[in-house]
Write a structure and sequence with these properties.
Elements: H1 9-21, H2 26-32, H3 36-39, E1 41-44, E2 47-50, H4 58-70, H5 73-82, E3 108-109, E4 112-113, H6 114-134, E5 147-151, H7 158-166, E6 175-179, H8 184-191, E7 199-204, H9 211-228, H10 233-236, E8 237-241, H11 244-250, E9 257-259, H12 276-282, H13 284-303, H14 310-324, E10 329-334, H15 342-354, E11 372-374, H16 386-391, E12 398-403, H17 421-438, H18 442-447, H19 452-458, E13 466-471, H20 476-497, H21 508-522, H22 532-545
Bound molecules: 6-O-phosphono-beta-D-fructofuranose.
EC number: 5.3.1.9
Keywords: Isomerase
Enzyme class: isomerase
């Protein structure tokens, strides 16, 4: 397959379409394409994905589907799902989809049947979870566990932290807290009101070598041992990792370790044992529903026709926006306070995956890659950054996510009439997407009787693209579907751009430099770090530290 997307015929066609698009408004597109909403609204599992407010028309969509074909998306998808080593720079399979295969399926990868392995670990997670939740698992002093503290960072934190918050109304087990940052304030705040006798730590790290996690885990262990003695570690520490030797070396019995595999990337790992803290919070049955939701979208992605395939279409439109229209960032705005951590989760998923300047074969990319993801829940975002989205000079496509129903017991009557607060929330979401797309021109503003000197200020330019993702309710299954929907978009984009979405070499040098600098900070020798700015910052740090 062609790894330089810009040399494909479809790319050339898209470049021509882009020039045409400069002068076409979304209003015109809605007028000239009567079937637009039907054609650009796709269902995937419980998700209804409305792409009609994106700046595309049927010709662009055809060219984007040609682009998928000419860059080999379907072949790459089959390769991923069958366990080929598509993570070429690390020579690994990429099989997060195997984590959610039903128990009776089979998948042999590198000579090993992985579905049985996956379910064996899920069963062990379930047994542990049941014991913690029922009180059968006792701390060293015989007390019931009331708090689980997950210590991990990146994919070993963001997925479980995001999911636990998203599903907080289903959390009926021990309280679950997350510690990630090596900033000591994170751990000390998390432990401040906890009793070591009733606390279990889940040390979650794929490699079990991550500086932040090992520092926090070591400090947590000291906190526990100071209170309860060395023998207490066994009842209060479990590990989630791929590396048994390092877990043992840290002092956690491998019998208390939940395994996963190098074919699960950190940012794709929430469905693996990395989700143990989520399972503790919501129980094994609901965790099963979460995995089933992911699997439903995996199946959709694998089998839906290209023009009805939601992750494929959304991923391709992301390429169109970022690489051709020059819209370099995407705002994710969930109209759900429970999804408050979704933007942060998606930042790692998408930006660590596709923030690359070279292709998988090591050659430089020839178009912009990797959208910058950011966001906050609506309606809060409306009172913060939406001014720029509506009238700023930068066009930022938006993903709106909303739910038809609030969770049971979550909805309340609004101030006025028969409207509920959930309806108010959704009305806001629909209104924002509508205004972004269709704007308000000077004639309409004047028609409102606006004073002439304010007309320019009140004009809303419109033509600001968005996707609206609507689902019945935020349940474990629907959350799983949302995650898989974004995972597969990320995959599609990586294939089109020709990059390896599953490595992250760009984070390594910073880690090595931090390790080298920590000794310099702790010592008092004149710094000689190789650059004058860092040397000066270190001497300034010492002056400030010493008061
Ligand atoms: O940020 C780099 C990274 O390797 C991520 O990809 C990963 O999710 C995170 O660090 C944590 O890694 P680990 O789970 O090995 O501690």
């Amino acid at each position: 397959m062609n790894s330089d997307v810009t040399t494909t015929p479809a790319w050339k066609s898209l470049q021509e379409q882009r020039d045409r698009f400069d002068s076409i408004s979304l209003r015109e597109l809605f007028d000239s394409e009567p079937n637009r909403v039907d054609e650009l609204t796709v269902a995937a599992g419980d998700l209804v994905v409305d792409l009609s407010k994106q700046r595309v028309d049927s010709a662009v969509m055809r060219a984007l589907l040609d682009l998928a074909e000419q860059t080999g998306v379907a072949r790459a998808r089959a390769a991923m799902l069958s366990g080929e080593h598509i993570n070429v720079t690390e020579d690994r399979a990429v099989l997060h989809t195997a984590l959610r295969l039903p128990r009776d399926s089979e998948l042999v990868v590198d000579g090993v049947e992985v579905v049985a392995q996956v379910h064996a670990v899920l069963d062990r997670m379930g047994e542990f979870t049941d014991r913690v939740r029922s009180g059968a698992w006792r701390g060293a002093t015989g007390e019931k566990i009331t708090t689980v503290v997950n210590i991990g960072i990146g994919g070993s934190d963001l997925g479980p932290a995001m999911a636990t918050r998203a599903l907080r109304r289903f959390c009926d087990g021990p309280q679950v807290r997350f510690v990630s940052n090596v900033d000591p304030a994170d751990l000390t705040a998390a432990l401040a009101d906890l009793d070591p006798a009733t606390t279990v730590f889940v040390v979650a790290s794929k490699t079990f070598s991550t500086l932040e996690t090992l520092s926090n885990a070591t400090a947590a262990r000291r906190w526990l041992v100071d209170a309860l003695g060395e023998d207490a570690v066994a009842a209060h520490f479990v590990a989630v990792s791929t590396d048994t030797d390092r877990v043992r070396a840290f002092g956690i019995d491998p019998a208390h370790m939940f395994e996963f595999w190098d074919w699960v990337g950190g940012r794709y790992s929430v469905g693996s044992a990395i989700g143990l803290s989520v399972m503790c919070a919501i129980g094994r049955e609901r965790f099963g529903q979460f995995l089933a939701g992911m699997h439903a979208i995996d199946t959709h992605f694998a089998t839906a026709e290209p023009d009805r395939n939601a992750p494929l279409l959304a991923g391709l439109i992301g390429v169109w926006n970022a690489s051709l229209l020059g819209y370099r960032s995407r705002a994710v705005v969930p109209y759900s306070q429970d999804l408050g951590r979704l933007p942060a989760y998606l930042q790692q998923l998408t930006m660590e995956s596709n923030g690359k300047s070279v292709r998988a074969d090591g050659t430089a990319v020839s178009c912009p890659t990797g959208e910058v993801f950011w966001g906050e829940p609506g309606t809060n975002g409306q009172h913060a950054f939406f001014q720029l989205l509506h009238q700023g000079t930068e066009v930022v496509p938006v993903d709106f996510l909303g739910f038809a129903r609030a969770g049971e017991g979550q909805d309340l009557p609004a101030r006025d009439g028969d409207v509920t607060m959930q309806q108010l929330l959704l009305a806001n979401m629909f209104a924002q997407a509508k205004v972004l797309a269709f704007g308000r021109d000077a004639g309409e503003v004047r028609g409102d009787g606006t004073a002439e000197e304010l007309v320019a200020h009140k004009v809303m330019p419109g033509d600001r693209p968005s996707t609206t993702i609507l689902a019945p309710e935020l349940t474990p299954s629907v959350l799983g579907q949302i995650i898989a929907f974004y995972e597969h978009q990320t995959f599609v984009q990586g294939v089109v751009w020709g990059i390896d979405s599953f490595d992250q070499w760009g984070v390594e040098l910073g880690k090595a430099q931090a390790t080298a600098l920590q000794a310099v900070l702790a010592g008092d020798a004149t710094p000689d770090t190789g650059d004058a700015s860092t040397d000066r910052l270190i001497t300034t740090y010492r002056t400030l530290r010493d008061g």
